[in-house]
């Protein structure tokens, strides 16, 4: 198996605005409702997103609220609350960033993650871990697509919705895209679709069999890009100014407690997970931080900087254990514990002692 498989992970939150509303309004779960631009003026509002129950009636994003109400008169309309959605989005992105990979926040509910340095099994482990963590910690569902390149990964993601997971291996790419409509290519709008239709090109397979010079004459340089995509060549790069400064893991305990063995068992699990992430990104850490949140939501942290770099799970757990012990008190219960490594450096540039 190739040690560097070149895969990109693409994540899309399912019906994001609607799912956010269900978090604070659980009574909406399973019911037809829509998030709209103006719930007070049904003649001017536009549907931002519709719950999956509402979509069964033909209601979709971009539809005038008045039209949606004609399709389903009892539709419950909620005015958009972008500040709230952005807050939840930030929580999603922080989970992704905690894995330590370069990432691009494509939109408020989509992200592309650069796992090109990992092999296939590592990519799968990271992607499944992110999906599970978002589900467990935020109670939200997402769909993940994995493929060789950002464009193909998004197409895989689109094909797997909702709440899906699709891994397109390199040798499967051509067959996967062959029968996709040209409009399924991210960035291809109605205007480009219309021009291609004039050449009797409706599917990506048609592009594969076309003349690249004819495409360039019709669409300019974009014609060349589409031709390369049809041949399985995805050159779109992940654009991000984010560089991992730390990797963290934290989790609520099963119940509030000050039982040291219980807390240490949780800390050990988190330390192993964080150290695995360090190694998978080919980093080394030098600083360690532990966090304790008590039952009353007050929080304490302690940090230590080592005299050397390491990627060891044992070192991390040993040092974190010593840091956390003074924070466990007889008279106050612990609700959540966490561990973070920082002062990261590339493993190729340092000698580790452990």
UniProtKB/TrEMBL annotation:
Q: Which GO terms describe its molecular function?
A: damaged DNA binding; DNA-directed DNA polymerase activity; magnesium ion binding
Describe, as the record does, how this protein assembles with itself and its partners.
Monomer.
**CC cofactor:** Mg(2+)
Protein role: Poorly processive, error-prone DNA polymerase involved in untargeted mutagenesis. Copies undamaged DNA at stalled replication forks, which arise in vivo from mismatched or misaligned primer ends. These misaligned primers can be extended by PolIV. Exhibits no 3'-5' exonuclease (proofreading) activity. May be involved in translesional synthesis.
Per the record, the similarity remark reads: Belongs to the DNA polymerase type-Y family.
- Transferase listed as a keyword: yes
Q: Which InterPro entries does this UniProt record tie to the protein?
A: DNA/RNA_pol_sf, DNA_pol_Y-fam_lit_finger_sf, DNA_pol_Y-fam_little_finger, DNA_polymerase-Y, DNApol_IV, IMS_HHH_1, Rev_trsase/Diguanyl_cyclase, UmuC
Q: Which top EC class is given?
A: transferase
Location in or out of the cell? Cytoplasm
GO BP term, example: DNA-templated DNA replication
Domain UmuC: start-end pairs: 8-189
**Gene name as annotated:** dbh
- Quickly give the catalysed reaction: DNA(n) + a 2'-deoxyribonucleoside 5'-triphosphate = DNA(n+1) + diphosphate
Q: How is the cofactor bound?
A: Binds 2 magnesium ions per subunit.
UniProtKB keywords: Cytoplasm, DNA damage, DNA repair, DNA replication, DNA-binding, DNA-directed DNA polymerase, Magnesium, Metal-binding, Mutator protein, Nucleotidyltransferase, Transferase
Active site residues of this protein: 110
The positions annotated as site (Substrate discrimination) read: 17
Q: EC?
A: 2.7.7.7
User: Which positions bind Mg(2+)?
Assistant: 12, 109
State the name under which the record lists this protein: DNA polymerase IV
Cite the CDD domains for this sequence: PolY_Pol_IV_kappa
Pfam family name, one = IMS_C
């Amino acid at each position: 198996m190739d040690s560097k498989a070149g895969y990109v992970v693409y994540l899309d939150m399912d019906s994001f605005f609607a799912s956010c509303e269900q978090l604070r309004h659980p009574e909406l779960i399973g019911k037809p409702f829509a998030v709209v631009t103006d719930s007070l003026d049904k003649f001017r509002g536009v549907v931002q997103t519709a719950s999956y129950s509402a979509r069964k009636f033909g209601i979709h994003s971009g539809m005038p609220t008045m039209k949606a109400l004609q399709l389903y008169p009892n539709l419950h309309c909620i005015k958009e609350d972008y500040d709230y959605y952005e807050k939840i989005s930030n929580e999603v992105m922080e989970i992704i960033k905690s894995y330590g990979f370069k990432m691009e926040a494509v939109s408020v509910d989509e992200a592309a993650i650069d796992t090109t340095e990992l092999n296939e099994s590592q990519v799968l482990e990271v992607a499944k871990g992110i999906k599970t963590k978002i589900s467990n910690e935020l109670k939200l569902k997402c769909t993940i697509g994995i493929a060789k390149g950002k464009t193909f990964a998004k197409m895989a993601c689109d094909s797997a919705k909702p709440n899906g997971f699709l891994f397109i291996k390199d040798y499967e790419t051509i067959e996967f895209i062959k029968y996709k409509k040209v409009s399924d290519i991210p960035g291809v709008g109605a205007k480009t679709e219309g021009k291609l239709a004039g050449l009797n090109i409706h599917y990506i397979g048609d592009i594969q069999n076309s003349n690249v010079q004819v495409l360039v004459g019709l669409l300019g340089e974009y014609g060349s890009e589409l031709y390369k995509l049809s041949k399985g060549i995805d050159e779109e790069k992940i654009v991000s100014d984010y560089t991992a400064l730390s990797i963290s893991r934290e989790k609520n305990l099963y119940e509030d407690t000050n039982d040291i063995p219980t807390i240490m068992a949780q800390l050990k699990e988190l330390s192993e997970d964080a150290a695995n992430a360090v190694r998978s990104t080919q980093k080394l850490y030098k600083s360690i931080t532990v966090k304790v949140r008590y039952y009353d939501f007050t929080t304490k942290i302690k940090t230590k900087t080592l005299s050397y770099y390491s990627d060891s799970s044992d070192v991390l757990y040993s040092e974190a254990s010593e840091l956390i012990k003074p924070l466990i008190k007889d008279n106050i219960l612990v609700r959540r514990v966490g561990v973070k490594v920082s002062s990261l450096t590339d493993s190729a540039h340092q000698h580790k002692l452990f």
